[in-house]
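Consider this:
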Amino acid sequence: MSIDIPSHEDLVALSQQRNEASVSLYVSPGSTDGGPPIGRDTEAARLALRSAATEAMAELGVLGVEKAELDAIGQSLGALDHDTGFWASSARSVAVFVSPEITQSFRLRNELPTLVAVGDRFDLGPLLRATTFGHSGYVLAVTLGSVRLLSLNADDSSDEIALPDLPEDLGRTLETADNHGKADTPRADGALGSKVELRRYCSLIQEAVLSVMGNSGLPLVLAASSDLKPAYREISTYRGLLSSAIDANPSSLSIDDLEDRGRAILAEHHTDELASWRTKFGNKQSNGLASSQLSDVSHAAAAGLVDTLLFDLASTDEGSIDEYGQIVFASEPGPSTYGLVDELAARVLRTGGTVKAVRRDDLPDDSPVAATFRGPL
């Protein structure tokens, strides 16, 4: 039941697309009533997409988009509607980006508000918020012959994720010993295996896990038996693996237990990370290498100077930003406007910076943004 996790490259590529007939659709048919995942009611999800597509096509018509381009967009959306494999998903939202030249879609675990946006670029705001908000992550529970991966979503929901690439005979990896071509023999009771075999066992698990969640960098909380915990840390290549772990054998924990303990660790990690960043921000600000002024951050982003940007998860300021970072505010959304902090986040991503969506209270000043710079502005 597939989920699509946008990579950094996906976000950068989409943020670079420019076409007057760019359509962004966010469909979440169950978001208002806590309905089932899309895969359990595909007709409702497809109907929501058709409704959003109809609205977008009408807006394109008002803008005077040529018929050939309208037809190309309509055909792409129609093909997605009839792609039965796409709708067989445990996702709760779908994000679709389509123009005459490109079509890209993502199935997301978060329940995002339904949105139809038409303009000269894709509206990546909801997608950026969903993928960079610090209160989401994973819990990986590992024991002999048992692996569970739990997604902790930003909307406080959770999902247990299937691992289709996990070997069916995974448990036997530690039950037998390699005797250099001779018949394998059972291990003595209580012995899981040598360090080499433990690492091999964990490597198989990591391959299956990364094939599902990619290398997005979202925090990963480990819960493992005492023999497997150090072995997994030794082989892990995932940059989001936290140093704090669930201090209990996961075989004794329910899914609810894993979620509760995992969220507690995520919250502590997020608090520590923000405190550390605010200290760094204050030190850099006194040296002219950080700012929470929207205009300063905008000019720094235009110059490729932003190292890390924190932006308000709920910001709704609309307008436009020119190539030099000059901001023009708009009183209401329109085809030529976009979310200002979303555009800043996209520019920071394109120049190799880091972006994080946070709550307004987490920012150091009464501003929708705060950023550290690579050099003086």
The chain has three domains: 8-132, 137-269, 287-373. The mean pLDDT is 88. The longest strand covers residues 137-143.
